[in-house]
Give the backbone structure.
Amino acid sequence: MFDWQQEAEILTNRYGTERMRSAIETLSEAYRAGRNTLAPRMDDQLLVAAYLAVRFPATYAANRSAGEAIAEAIATRASMEDFAPESLLDLGAGCGAASLAATEQWPSLATVTAIEQMPAMVHVGKQILADAIWRTSRFEEIPELPLHDVVVCSYSLGEGRSDTLLVEKAWKATGQLLILIEPGTPRGFSWILGARTRLIELGASILAPCPSAAQCPAKDLDWCHFSARLNRSALHRRLKGGTLGYEDEKFSYLAAWRGGLAEGLPRVLRHPLIQPGRIETELCVAPERRRVVTTKRNKDGFKRARKLGWGDAFDVAPAAGPELSPSDD
Ligand SMILES: C[S@@+](CC[C@H](N)C(=O)[O-])C[C@H]1O[C@@H](n2cnc3c(N)ncnc32)[C@H](O)[C@@H]1O
């Protein structure tokens, strides 16, 4: 398999550490400002080298993390433990982070079609996913996207001005599952929320992270997002500075499903507060959020709640007494 870390190392040697650092800084500034990947004016090859070194590992980690939560929701809400999709369409594929994560989550994916407008991204992507069908094109230019079991738009929805149109086209091309992932920022979440509203209008079932298609309670919450931890390579540390051995990528996501679904479990919205004998967990039970306290009185529940983290489905059985208590504060 193609070693993308090694490729990032080779590209860094080609461009030199200082040029790479400056390209990464420009890319990060554009990212923080919510501008699109193509906004930084720099050589395309250098941009892709910077992307591969620092953004690809992060978007890949976000896709892996969302993919696990989605697979769990498919098993529990669609009763499809054996979900085995065969085809994947990746829109705004970059160099293939989302496709790579999806094929690891669902090894049954035999056909991967990746659509990406930047030839330099496609060039690297073809090495990472050699068996995929790569199309160098803008998705607006493809009148009708071909039908695939799974469609993914990873960090690409906010890239264009026509995000609603993209959502509609993407849903039309979805045989079973549509995955949208965006930066875990207020702006990234607003794109996800807009897409959610449109998808519900189009008849989609909302699979994850929401427990149902009821109104999103995020207005009191700032924005709904999750976090994926990724190990930082020596190259990543050298290029981005800092000493920590890991980085937390914040992301917002949505999985839409074609077909009926059972009601989902509440979703853990942030790191639970663990205190001696007591765990406080903030949950989404759309249309509201709720804070529940699990104490040691609920022996099995307490054990389970200890294992749950931000982003997990909350499957703690209530104690016999009034253990799960809503709190409005
Ligand atoms: C932030 S990158 C994300 C890449 C990849 N999906 C990932 O998760 O790492 C966004 C990608 O979408 C591509 N893109 C943006 N608008 C596009 C369009 N209209 N048609 C095709 N690709 C597009 C950009 O060229 C860029 O490679």
The first strand starts at residue 87 and ends at 91.
